[in-house]
UniProtKB/TrEMBL annotation:
Its EC number is 2.7.11.1. This is S-receptor-like serine/threonine-protein kinase protein. Keywords: Transferase.
Length: 789
């Protein structure tokens, strides 16, 4: 090695003149220059980024390895452009100045440095006249530790986001101020730390993390004991070495032989099966799974019928290639089949476990459960998993089979529905494609404002006066409604239980109405029809949609509402015409009033079961009105709980639906909380689009992360009106977090929600919505015997 160095010194005088030299005051290093340590092993200067050669990183790197491995960088998060320079000013300040002339990095913000130098250890120092370092890169590591480097308490090493991307990544190794050495995943962009996946448990005793000159990395305890972290040591004179926290969260000890770096120790040895946070997506992104490649590095892969959100960034997760069902009641039979994956599992997404189902029963059960996206079968055990899939990993010893529910390619939907012009036509089927149409069409769903009280009276007059004045809920004939809708011509939208048509009553002036024609499924369930009519018929509140009348003739069941021109809240939250913050506040309060009325104040308490923006309609003055009582379940007077099959829509349903727990009005509180988050943030509760940050995909997780980390402003983005009412946003967010508590008994009742919204009572700081006992529906213990066996 010294011979090579000697040759270098002889043939390259300009290089030689830089080697062995101190960087003295008044020196400027331009983007094309590098400085070297005396041995030439390390270089310091600007490196073009491998991903974009017009951006430069101020870095220290191994100069003699083929790949010029970077060991430290000053500006990973803000690379500079051509024309930038590094200066050691005459008054001894070390400055990185970008092409515009502004200082972007200044590590030691006072004068006093006599010179700067890159030492043979790879340490970049600023030294005083007596050569004592006043600043050194070894004290501010990025993702790498070098031999002879010592880290003290309260120091962290942060992984890079991706290989060749030097921005801050998702994992941190930290020698905490209490002496514990830990590795944990972080959420981007909030920097929230999740549970540690590796630690030395040395609270009170860990003092220094040492990578000694003999190539051993160990934690030194205060009684002198060492805890070895690397498992083998290699002489530093024979090998280049480094310990790097790689972008997949593994701390690796690399040694360099002539043909590249070799991993000698990995901690933890299997990252895929070690990261296991209750929240967050795991070692890879949502809907993907983590598998170790032949070099024991993490690769993030998608299950069948899923593909990467961004093929260049596999760690960001996957998205379903098919339209995921809304689970709002439509029939799914025949639409799905399974693809098998052996030894892959997503333990974070379980919502139901059976211990007496063989594989075919497991398949059958999942197929008929709209919320089931994946089933996992092992022996007589069957777990059902819902989207988004989290903590996915491939584990050789799992001894089970994941069954991925994918669209049935040989399935052909029934022919398009034909709507009868006469009562003889009965082919009103809710078909497959309808599921995806349902949401968009629902926007158009209209409704009514009129007096509603139960009555048996049977007016023939269609004049609006009598409708508004009289107490009667009208009973229409089928013929009247057929004429009013011009033969069911103009469709306004489709809901879970039927299709809505526009119509006019032949009065002066014309009264616009919305006629909901209940589909065949429901026509066969006569009781539900009566229930719906009765429940709506007895409600009377400013924030509830009014029923105008109905038709119950032969096989035909229809409901008549007044048409509401502004459609559903969804358009005003997620569309281009977003409402301002003040209006959103009014709407959130209005909906809460309506729900309180349904739960406590009306004739017989009603649980709505499907609260979501599509079911909130707005009148001309943007007063919110809760609609679609198709799912409402009437409660007896003294009854507060009821049992029923899962109802509701993905993203808004509370956990107790999945747990065979009794269903109470608290399910509406949960859905209200999710919707309140959507109202605050103007974004959907589940969002798996390209360009979205993975951590933001599940609004409930992200909102709580932002709350816990004091970064609430990130939730409202550039909504200036909301930012101006920061206290209001904070109060609404805290209320929403109370509402989405996983444990129903922790959620407030609607009366209390209303009091908190009205500032009548102070909102106490909410706890985490995910109580620790419920973080895993399957305890990690289930894994252990198998992993070891
Ligand atoms: C750098 O400067 C210091 C202090 O002036 C001196 O002690 C040291 O020998 C110099 N190093 C080199 C390599 O010139
Ligand atoms: C650093 O690496 C470059 C490119 O491989 C080489 O030309 C140069 O001689 C090296 N410098 C030293 C001091 O070894
Ligand atoms: C490289 O970065 C520059 C500056 O940010 C940008 O203008 C340019 O588009 C980038 N080029 C590529 C290929 O991404
Ligand atoms: C650790 O670092 C943080 C932030 O840099 C600082 O606030 C804290 O006082 C430090 N703790 C100790 C024990 O040095
Ligand atoms: C997260 O930490 C990085 C530094 O590690 C910092 O640059 C960034 O601003 C932090 N993000 C937030 C949202 O605080
Ligand atoms: C390196 O190992 C040698 C012999 O095994 C030992 O004498 C020396 O103290 C060690 N150096 C360090 C820094 O641990
Ligand atoms: C030092 O402390 C550690 C943990 O606190 C203990 O396991 C070890 O036995 C101690 N060693 C000595 C020499 O006291
Ligand atoms: C730690 O590593 C050093 C050097 O490899 C070795 O001498 C020592 O026995 C190891 N200690 C333990 C507890 O394994
Ligand atoms: C897939 O569709 C075909 C044709 O409609 C049907 O015969 C088959 O049973 C379906 N498969 C499943 C698993 O439902
Ligand atoms: C699974 O169980 C069902 C019901 O007990 C039985 O009919 C079926 O044959 C079983 N299937 C297998 C593959 O054992």
């Amino acid at each position: 090695m010294s011979l090579i160095l000697l040759l270098l010194l002889l043939c390259n005088c300009s290089l030689a003149s830089q080697t062995n030299q101190n960087i003295s005051k008044g020196t400027t290093i331009t983007i094309t220059e590098s400085w070297f340590s005396p041995s030439g092993d390390f270089a310091f200067g600007f490196l073009p980024l491998p991903t974009n050669s017009s951006l430069f990183l101020l870095a220290v790197w191994f100069n003699k390895t083929d790949d010029k491995t970077v060991v430290w960088s000053a500006n990973g998060n803000f690379p500079v452009l051509e024309g930038s320079k590094l200066q050691l000013t005459t008054d001894g300040q070390f400055l990185l100045i970008d092409h515009t002339g502004s200082t972007v990095w200044n590590p030691y913000q006072s004068s006093g440095a006599a010179y700067a130098a890159l030492l043979d250890t790879g340490n970049l120092i600023l030294a005083a006249t007596d050569s004592t370092p006043i600043w050194q890169s070894f004290k501010f590591p990025t993702d790498t530790i070098l031999p002879t480097q010592v880290l003290f308490r309260n120091t962290t090493i942060r992984s890079h986001l991706y290989d060749h991307d030097y921005t801050d990544g998702k994992f941190e190794l930290s020698l905490q101020s209490n002496g514990n050495l830990m590795m944990f995943p972080l959420a981007l962009p909030t920097n929230l730390t999740y549970d540690a996946y590796w630690e030395t448990n040395t609270i009170g005793s860990g003092t220094q993390l040492v990578f000694d000159a003999n190539g051993t990395l160990y934690l030194l305890l205060n009684n002198g004991t060492r805890i070895n972290i690397t498992t083998s040591s290699f002489s530093t004179t024979a090998y280049y070495q480094r310990v790097t926290l790689d972008s997949d969260g593994v701390l690796r000890h690399y040694i360099h032989r002539k043909n590249g770096w070799t991993v000698v120790t990995s901690v933890p040895s299997d990252i895929c099966n070690t990261v296991n946070s209750g929240t967050g997506s795991g070692a890879c992104g949502f809907n993907s799974y983590c598998q170790l490649d032949e070099n024991d590095h993490r690769s993030c892969l998608c299950p069948p019928s899923f593909s990467l959100l961004d093929p260049d960034k596999p760690y960001e997760g996957c998205r379903a290639d098919y339209e995921t069902p809304l689970c709002d009641g439509g029939d799914q039979s025949g639409m799905f089949e399974f693809k098998e994956m052996v030894n892959v599992d997503w333990p974070g997404s379980d919502y139901e476990h059976y211990n007496s189902f063989n594989e075919s029963q497991c398949r059958e059960n999942c197929l008929h459960d709209c919320f089931c996206a994946v089933a996992f079968s092992r022996g007589m055990d069957c777990w059902k998993k819902k989207l988004p899939l989290t903590n996915g990993r491939a584990t050789a010893s799992l001894l089970g089979k994941a069954l991925i529910k994918v669209p049935n390619t040989s399935f052909s939907p029934s022919p398009p529905p034909q709507f009868p012009n006469t009562k003889k036509g009965r082919k009103v089927w809710l078909i497959t494609g309808l599921l995806s149409l349902a949401v968009s069409l629902l926007i158009l769903f209209g409704s009514i404002i009129t007096l509603v009280r139960r009555s048996q009276s049977n007016h023939k007059s269609l004049a609006p006066d009598s409708l508004f004045a009289g107490p009667a809920m009208r009973c229409f004939t089928y013929k009247e409604l057929e004429e009013a809708t011009d033969g069911f011509k103009k469709e306004l939208g489709r809901g879970a239980f039927g299709i809505v048509y526009e119509g006019f009553l032949p009065s002066e002036p014309k009264t616009c109405i919305a006629v909901k024609k209940l589909d065949r499924l429901l026509q066969e369930r006569e009781k539900e029809f009566t229930v719906e009519v009765q429940s709506i018929g007895q409600t009377h509140h400013k924030n509830l949609v009014r029923l105008y009348g109905y038709c119950n003739e032969g096989i035909n069941r229809l409901l008549v509402y007044e048409f509401m021109s502004n459609g559903s809240l969804m358009r005003f939250l997620f569309g281009s015409s977003r409402l301002g913050w003040d209006k959103r506040v009014d709407i959130a309060i209005g909906i809460a009033r309506g729900l309180l009325y349904l739960h406590e104040e009306c004739h017989s308490p009603i649980i709505h079961c499907d609260i979501k923006p599509q079911n909130i309609l707005l009148d001309d003055e943007l007063t919110p009105k809760i609609s679609d009582f198709g799912l409402a379940k009437l409660l007896g007077r003294n009854q507060t709980q009821t049992n029923t099959a899962i109802r509701g829509t993905r993203g808004y349903v509370a956990a107790e639906w999945f747990k065979n727990m009794a269903i109470s009005a608290k399910v509406d509180v949960y859905s209200y909380g999710v919707m309140l988050l959507e109202i605050i943030c103007c974004r959907r509760s589940l969002q798996m689009e390209l360009n979205d940050r993975e951590e933001e995909a599940v609004l409930a997780y992200w909102a709580y992360d932002c709350y816990r980390e004091g970064k609430v402003h990130m939730l409202v983005g550039n909504d200036a009106e909301a930012l101006a009412d920061f206290d209001g946003v904070m109060r609404f967010l805290m209320i929403a977090i109370w509402c989405i508590q996983e444990d129903p008994s922790q959620r407030p009742i609607m009366r209390r929600v209303n009091q908190m919204l009205d500032c009548a009572i102070v909102v106490p700081p909410p706890p985490s919505p995910y109580s620790s006992s419920e973080r895993f529906t399957r305890s990690p213990d289930c894994y252990r015997p198998l992993l070891e066996g």
